[in-house]
Automatic annotation (TrEMBL):
InterPro entries per the UniProt record, alphabetical: TM_pro_TauE-like
Organism, as annotated: Moraxella lacunata
Protein name: Probable membrane transporter protein
Transmembrane feature ranges: 28-56, 96-116, 128-145
Family of the protein in this entry: Belongs to the 4-toluene sulfonate uptake permease (TSUP) (TC 2.A.102) family.
Membrane-topology annotation of the record: Multi-pass membrane protein
Keyword terms of this UniProt record: Cell membrane, Membrane, Transmembrane, Transmembrane helix
Entry's localization field: Cell membrane; Membrane
One cellular component (GO) term of this entry: plasma membrane
Domain of life: Bacteria
Pfam families cross-referenced by the UniProt entry: TauE (PF01925)
Length: 149
């Protein structure tokens, strides 16, 4: 987690200071980053930071970043549900009510975000995502420090 935090914070701060990091647009790059994101996601449950860094390095088109990011998150949740099926079947009804409520709030947030996103310029969107990465990097770093202690 500490290594992930260092990489995420380095990428985000470097990008915020104006240096755009560009990865080669090849199938090999795609496969390697996808594999790394899967390993990181399995080990730390922080796959989003790797995917966001990859998407930001490949395109400035906010619509592409949003669509690909959402598709990756959706597929990730399906895989998690399949892998954790036995544990999910043991979750109490009260917990499912809370999960349903949070899901409804999340969907509402997505709808509001989609409406606001149409008015957000790509450059501001990119900056916002980089600040989200800073937050994720700090969070993962803090969790890593706590794990060491």
């Amino acid at each position: 987690m500490l290594a992930l935090a260092v990489v995420v914070l380095w990428y985000a701060t470097t990008s915020l200071m104006g240096k755009k990091i560009v990865l080669p647009n090849t199938t090999t790059s795609l496969v390697v980053i996808g594999f790394v994101a899967g390993v990181v996601g399995g080990a730390t449950n922080a796959m989003s930071s790797v995917l966001l860094m990859y998407l930001l390095s490949m395109t400035d088109d906010k619509d592409t970043i949003i669509k690909v990011g959402n598709l990756c998150y959706f597929v990730n949740k399906i895989v998690q549900a399949i892998v954790l099926k036995e544990f999910l079947l043991e979750v109490p009804i009260q917990t499912w009510a809370m999960i349903l409520g949070l899901t409804v709030l999340s969907v509402l947030g997505i709808i509001i975000g989609a409406k606001l996103g149409k008015h957000l310029p790509s450059a501001k969107f990119r900056t916002l995502i980089l600040w989200v990465l800073v937050g994720l990097g700090v969070k993962v770093g803090w969790q890593g420090v706590q794990g060491v202690l």
